[in-house]
Specification:
CATH architecture: 2-Layer Sandwich
Keywords: GTP-binding, Hydrolase, Metal-binding, Nucleotide-binding, One-carbon metabolism, Zinc
CATH class: Alpha Beta
Helix content: 25-40%
CATH topology: GTP Cyclohydrolase I, domain 2
Radius of gyration: 19 Å
Subunit structure: Homopolymer.
Order of helices and strands: HHEEEEHEHEHEHH
Number of domains: 1
Distance between the termini: 47 Å
Protein name: GTP cyclohydrolase 1
Structural class: alpha+beta
Enzyme class: hydrolase
GO molecular function: GTP binding; GTP cyclohydrolase I activity; zinc ion binding
Shape: elongated
Strand content: 25-35%
Strand order of the largest sheet: 5-2-3-6-7
Largest sheet: 5 strands, mixed
């Protein structure tokens, strides 16, 4: 229907199998629709660690629910364990993946990851920052390649302790 709407012939040789390829692509990039990202925190470890845990530069991609074009970037996920409850580091990246693999808004991904972590890990605090380039701003509309959108969700101790929040931001900024 899209091909016809833009005046293309869907029966043209190069386009005959395009609808099936597009359907498979959307199935792959929307795989998070049928997943519960919170399951990644069903198993936690008891490790007497009560200081900052940060996984930064987690690459992710998603699709803008307003235009159905991609946006992609990096997520930085930090938490402050409570009572020695820590998650496997890969689980932070898996949650970001599952939440982002559906038609989305960057703001919602950021908030959802933070809320899942607060609920499932019961940490003293969580801080999630996403930096992404949106194709809806790059290839259409305002046409501003390279413009990045930054969103954050700050919960618990990171909201009230400026020194702790500054530590996370400093670690994200510097390698």
């Amino acid at each position: 229907m899209i091909l016809e709407a833009v005046g293309e012939n869907p029966e043209r040789e190069g386009l005959i199998e395009t609808p099936m390829r597009v359907a498979r692509m959307y199935e792959e990039i929307f795989a998070g629709l049928h997943k519960d990202p919170s399951v990644h925190f069903n198993k936690v470890f008891e490790e007497q660690h009560d200081e900052l845990v940060l996984v930064k530069d987690i690459r992710f991609s998603s699709v803008c629910e307003h235009h159905l074009v991609p946006f992609f970037g990096v997520a930085h996920v930090a938490y402050l364990p409570q009572n020695g409850r820590v998650a496997g580091l890969s689980k932070l990246a898996r949650v970001v993946d599952d939440v982002s693999k559906r038609p989305q808004l960057q703001e919602r991904i950021t908030k959802t990851v933070a809320e899942i972590m607060m609920e499932k890990l019961n940490p003293l605090g969580v801080m999630v920052i996403l930096e992404a380039e949106h194709m809806c701003m790059t290839i259409r509309g305002v046409n501003k390649p390279g413009a990045k959108t930054v969103t954050s969700a700050v919960r618990g101790a990171f909201r009230t302790d400026d020194k702790l929040r500054s530590e996370v931001l400093s670690l994200i900024k510097h390698s």
